[in-house]
Design goal:
globular; three-stranded antiparallel sheet; 24% helix; alpha/beta; 3 domains; TIM Barrel; 343 residues; 22% strand; 17 strands; eight-stranded mixed sheet
Amino acid sequence: MKEAMLYSKENGNKARCSLCRHSCLIEDGEHGICNVRLNRGGTLYSIFYGKPIALSPDPIEKKPLFHYKPGTSALSIATPGCNFQCDFCQNWDISQYGRDGSDRIPKQEIAPKIIVRQAIENKCDSISYTYTEPTIFFEYAYDTAILAKPEGIGNTFVTNGYMTREALDVIHPYLDAANVDLKAFRKDTYRKVIKAQLDGVLDSIKYMKQLGVWVEVTTLIVPGMNDSEAELKDIANFLVETGRDIPWHISRFVPHYRMDSIAPTPLDTLKRAYDIGREAGLRYIYLGNVPGDESENTRCYNCGSMLIERCGYSIQSNVITNKSECPSCKTKVDGIDMGVAGN
């Protein structure tokens, strides 16, 4: 264990965690909502520091991040636990540590410097803190990110966006990009299904943009939960108001976890969401969990030229110039290191 960052000691050996917007007041001997931050005698600890439950190289497109160093590899890392309790979680067996029988314990300790070394050895251009929720293993991610930067290795979060502004202020000098799950656009859905507050996520997305972190957003469309035309329009309009350059990944739901009796998202619903995003004025929209669909590709928002052709997580071609411009009309392609040297 390692002493936590961003907490305060309060009367009666209580500890107030300030990492995420739950702001848990944790009694001595108890855990926060995430189940992985423990108060011992008024000192708050991260119990899985240096103990990853998952560690492997991935295509950066798998995060999904389509406008951050396309075609490169990211060393993906996670520890158990999450500060959300989504009924449709795809990684519930590691994210829901301490709930529903999820009690997998990491078998080895790997120090931040070893993570960075593995990224170098695996020719990864970045490290992605993903699979569970990076906010709950913030200290581990932070220490690793600091070491990665001087080695020319980027850092990305795949996150539910529920960290505090204070946490973002601390990590943002080392955080290059984030994909934020915007799971719905109704306060009741966040409160009842996810056990959190929508406004905190929206604020994090806007604040990341303000800090200069490259942001992409994913929405898993769950039938009967967040698939109404009105709600999809609200999401698209919010993204346009925050930055029409934000790529929106619209992902297909498949039955899982506590929602294993709900049918997969109809393709027509995904196509309508795609059209809604276009009508709202978003520049980049992608459909996820729909292999082979044309919407996996990146086109110039100005002239419509094909820029990046994808098949799943693999890039078939990339004609963006090394100045991150469309070769046909010279329009700037939004993102980080979008082009290929020599183009």
